[in-house]
């Protein structure tokens, strides 16, 4: 199971990123542990400059804007 974190303070792009990841995981039948991280200190610990950020298994894979569906499919 992949551990997926979406980093962001609750903006529309952050919410859309969470929704997209959930949709792709469901469509592919992949079980994930999805966590939304809104704490500024926790977000800053990943040293990202733009949100939403996506972290998979501890590694930052995306920052800034909603990722493309194909990109999310590649992650999962």
From TrEMBL:
It comes from the Bacteria. Residues 3-76 form the Thioredoxin-like fold domain. Pfam families: Thioredoxin_3 (PF13192). SUPFAM superfamilies: Thioredoxin-like (SSF52833). PANTHER family: THIOREDOXIN. This is Thioredoxin family protein. It comes from Aromatoleum bremense.
């Amino acid at each position: 199971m992949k551990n997926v974190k979406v980093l962001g303070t609750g903006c529309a792009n952050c919410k859309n990123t969470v929704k997209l990841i959930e949709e792709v995981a469901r469509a592919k039948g992949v079980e994930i542990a999805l966590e939304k991280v809104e704490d500024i200190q926790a977000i800053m610990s990943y040293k990202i400059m733009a949100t939403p950020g996506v972290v998979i298994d501890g590694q930052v894979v995306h920052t800034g804007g909603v990722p493309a569906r194909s990109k999310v499919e590649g992650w999962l």
